[in-house]
Specification:
The protein is an all-alpha fold. It has one domain. The protein is built from four helices and no strands. It is elongated.
């Protein structure tokens, strides 16, 4: 488990969280951006999973998928909670948004594994 949740996961989580919260704050002040929260949330989670997988060189595919899901899902969870507290997102989105972000983070982790292995070859 330490291989999955090491410093690379923390770095990817901080990256994802920073970008997610920036999106939430921007959407709070620019209301048309709120309509794009769902796809942007998933895209950010995908890139957070990708960042995790590229940094985690010596873990298996399932570990990168799992780590990408954790990084993407948890960063989205915090951002969605912030958006709900600001009144920009209904509470019902919390579960489905976190789930979808976890899935896209997992996909980013799997793709990042393949991308990082082709970069080393």
């Amino acid at each position: 488990m330490d291989r999955i949740l090491g410093t690379k996961a923390q770095s990817a989580f901080i990256f994802g969280l920073f970008v997610q919260l920036a999106m939430v704050v921007a959407g709070h002040f620019d209301h048309p951006l709120i309509a794009l929260f769902a796809p942007l949330d998933c895209l950010i989670a995908f890139f957070a999973g990708l960042v995790y997988a590229v940094g985690a060189q010596k873990v298996a595919l399932w570990e990168r998928a799992y780590g990408g899901a954790l990084v993407g899902g948890t960063s989205a969870l915090v951002a969605i909670i912030a958006s709900v507290q600001l009144g920009d997102t209904p509470i019902e989105i919390l579960m489905i948004g976190t789930l979808l972000s976890g899935i896209t983070g997992s996909v980013g982790g799997m793709i990042g594994r393949e991308w990082s292995s082709t970069q080393r070859a």
